[in-house]
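Our preliminary data section would be incomplete without showing what the modeling component actually yields. Below, a chain of 467 amino acids is followed by its predicted structure, encoded as tokens that our downstream tools consume directly.
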Amino acid sequence: MPLDLAKKRVMVTGGAGFLGGFVLEKLAERGCTDVFVPRAAEFDLTRAADVTRALAVFEPEVVIHLAAVVGGIGANRDEPGRFFYENAIMGIELIEQSRRMGVEKFACVGTVCAYPKHTPVPFAEDALWDGYPEETNAPYGIAKKAMLVQLQAYREQYGMNGVFLLPVNLYGPRDNFDLHTSHVIPAIIRKCVEAREAGESHVTLWGTGTPSREFIYAADAAEGIVLATERYDDPEPVNLGAGFEITIRDLAEKIAALTGFTGDIVWDTSQPDGQPRRSLDTRRARERFGFEARTGFDEGLAATIEWYLAEGRAEPDASAPPPAPYVPPVERIVDGEQVVAIIVRGSLREPGVRFFSEADFSQQLGFMSRPAGHVIEPHVHNAVPREVAYTQETLFVREGRVRVDLYRDDRTPLASRVLATGDAILLATGGHGFTMLDETAMVEVKQGPYSGDGDKTRFEPGPGACG
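Predicted structure:
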């Protein structure tokens, strides 16, 4: 039965990127509103602690992993170590921490660069292990392919539902047009447009022009990714492609015609070609979850060129403020597997009753939202023996702003959060301190009987900074 994403909390890594923007649009079309995009400024997904924090902040039921360090042949050739390490560690940590957090579905987006250099065309998924990838793309491709192995191993050992998708080369509006880090289509578009406008007689492109490639419009790829997240639950990898092949030489001539460039195309044969041929067998995606690319190549190229001419060359506004960090309505702050605090923001709007604290906590923190006329029947609470050895407290901010600094059991700083009017925090373990940022009024609730100053030990914070 298809997964109803409209009813799920979905985390999309790389959601602020080129492909990610289209995936977010496809999720929105399905009525999915509970979506979290971890931003690089807040979460470094190459660090286990930040991966754990991102998952703890949002508590996703579904993870779509798009984030990657990517680039064309030049970028891959210049930084192979970085491309391997950052892509591998991101995937490994996200899959492992998602397993630990009980994520219901993990959709991982790999790369066509994982295929062997001389794979017979069209590339069938069963050929993925039949040789070594093309050398300039191998570190990136192998790092991504390792995630397929991890997901299959985790499915076998832990029953984790993870799927692995292999999109072919992407293109479309909002692509990266930087000549050092871009892929082939945006690079050729930019070179042709700039040469036409400057009246230049030729453009120079890398290689011989003889290799072939397949391209999929980014919005189509996003649809395939979301469809697989909804409908596909098998361990085998799946290609996402458009079902055609074109040589780089023919591609360049097509783009030149569409951009109005009439000069010569010069091929710099001292530069690498990359993989000789690249085209995918797309039958598995069609048969397993009904995906077929819909956008014609000429149509997609025209839309991409139109976007570049209208918006793609605008310089970023350096004076524009950065996007406000995402503040989840409910956040669990953890140290390893220990819950240190739970924050419920005044922005939370969720019908019904939901509790956020662990069942064995002496303080139970929940949220209730009921319509007018709803009746809660009169009741009394029975006397139940409980043993309480550690004080837990809940603070409700009636007005103002307060910074809460949280510390580990060893008294080193863990995190800081600002609470504002309407927010509440359950302080479960570790240490804490407060700084009033405005004139602030709070309500404090903790279990008794009150034991005086013997209930707490004041300390000087250890080294480090709260994050």
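The mean pLDDT is 91. The first helix runs from residue 18 to 29. Preliminary results of this kind motivate Aim 1 of the renewal.
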